[in-house]
Amino acid sequence: MKQERIYHILIDRFFPMRDEDAKGNFKGGCIKSIIEHLDYIQGLGMSGIMLTPFYKTAAYHGYHIVDFEQVDSHFGTKADMKELVKEVHKRGMVIVADFVANHCHKSCAFFADGKHKDWFCFYKDGSYKCFAGIGALPVFNTKNHEVVEYFTERVLNLCELGFDAIRFDHATGPCYAFWKHLQRTVKLQYPHVRLIGEVWGKMDFKPQCRVRYFINKLRYDAQEAKQLEYSNVFDGILDFEYQHLLCKAVHTGKTIVRNQKLHEEVRLHLARYPTGFQLWLFLDNHDLNRFLFECGGNKALLKEGVAFSKQWDMPYLMFYGTEKELTNENSIFDGTPYADERVRMCLK
Length: 348
Fold this sequence. Notes:
Blueprint: E1 5-9, H1 31-36, H2 38-43, E2 48-51, E3 55-57, E4 65-71, H3 78-90, E5 94-99, H4 109-112, H5 145-161, E6 165-168, H6 176-189, E7 194-197, H7 210-219, H8 222-229, E8 236-238, H9 240-251, H10 260-271, E9 278-282, H11 291-294, H12 299-309, E10 316-319
Parallel strand pairs: 1-2, 1-10, 2-5, 5-6, 6-7, 7-8, 8-9, 9-10
Antiparallel strand pairs: 3-4
């Protein structure tokens, strides 16, 4: 089977063309710009695109959602999105949506109207659980049946729009029962749509089986053990363990393409998952340092990383700008506020 190669786009930073929307941290990237550059993307050898969230948002990156039913006007309209899906499919490509079911922005009507208090995780003292310690991002109570049904309907709507796969942000947040209900319901109507989880980090993670998790953690490492816990929940996951293996190799001064130890580590890693489960390989994304930074600016190593990632029978995600050898000068993990902006530069 030919490997899927998917181009990962941060909508607001991809060839900005809407100067009137370049206000605050919004830079003017939009859906129409993506449509205009589909030939460019396909010319890179990509067979699909993955978008950051496009719903009405309080932040340029799309993850602070205000309304789960409206396309943000900075990015365009629902008609623009329908046209994008149509144009992608016309080229024989696939399109992937990014959906946030864990939290919303505090200005979202569900939180702001005070009528949906049981939709969120409030404590006895009246405070509420928030994502990543950010008070503006209240966390949904995914054990609430109404919340489960609402988000299932929103995902079905994405399927109806024609998306071929859906990435779920912070998949370790919502409870397993939430995901299993959503998966079961979506597959009844859209069996071909792939549901892909972002399983990463420590926040909110609880293993399905503690014994299995701790055994896998001892055998491998914490990230691998987390990922394995979701191998019966989603159709696939974003493979942070793969990215860690490649970073470890370049940090120790090793090459990638002729590195037999790395090749064997990756082969064994992939073999730990059920047949048919998709590990979406990637070198970097909007929450990580650019891979060229991890390579110490060595462009030959970056090219090796791309070539190495293309040889496996798993989807490969390429973050926008990799083809232009974009990088950050300083780590996004140095404690500087909003340091992730360093890897979210505009592609022009």
